[in-house]
Amino acid sequence: MTDRRRRFLVGALSLYIAFVFVQSLFFKFTDSPETQHIFGTLDAWAAGFGFAGLFAPTGPFSQYVVGSAELVASALLIAGLFTGRVLLQGAGALLALGVISGAIFFHLFTPLGVQVVNTDGSLDGGELFALACGVWIASAAILALRRADLLALLPFGRSGARLGRS
After folding, report:
1. Which residues pair with 117 in a beta bridge?
2. What is the phi/psi pair of residue 38, to 5°?
3. What's the rounded Cα separation, in Å, for the pair 78 and 14?
4. Distance between CA atoms of 122 and 105, rounded to whole angstroms?
5. Residue-wise pLDDT tens digits, 64-97
6. Residue 1 CA from chain centroid, whole number
7. Long-range CB contact pairs, 162-166, < 8 A, 24+
8. Beta bridge partners of 123
9. Which of 5, 12, 71, 156 has its CA 20 to 30 A from that of 22?
10. Are 136 and 100 in contact (CB under 8 A)?
11. pTM for the whole thing?
């Protein structure tokens, strides 16, 4: 793949992640009924293991904390896109991958489920889960596409010379 195509693809993936994350911030930061349901379900699940309040509005994994992490990831990706700084893109993609891995885990392994209940009582048809999977793939793809550039920023560089590799 040419460098120009790689940059274009990384840019498109970065914009996709930022779009998904930023459009969800309204719901997280305004304490919408959908957000109350999602984080309330997760908090009730965690309480069953003795961790009540983990996902509550003042908890360490509240919608405000998750939303802030999504905002930072988006800002890093967009800043990296417009400045050409690979490290910013890598940091944004890595943060996005971490946040969204948590979201996918909670969709799959908690009562939240793949289909989330909307405010009118209907199911979302797995839309949030599908978006999360898309963000995960996009984040992993950015890291894979920028792998050589990111490795070059490490102290041992591309060749791994300081690690005794030839």
Report:
1. 123
2. -60, -55
3. 7
4. 22
5. 999 999 999 999 999 999 999 999 999 999 999 9
6. 26
7. none
8. 117
9. 5
10. yes
11. 0.89
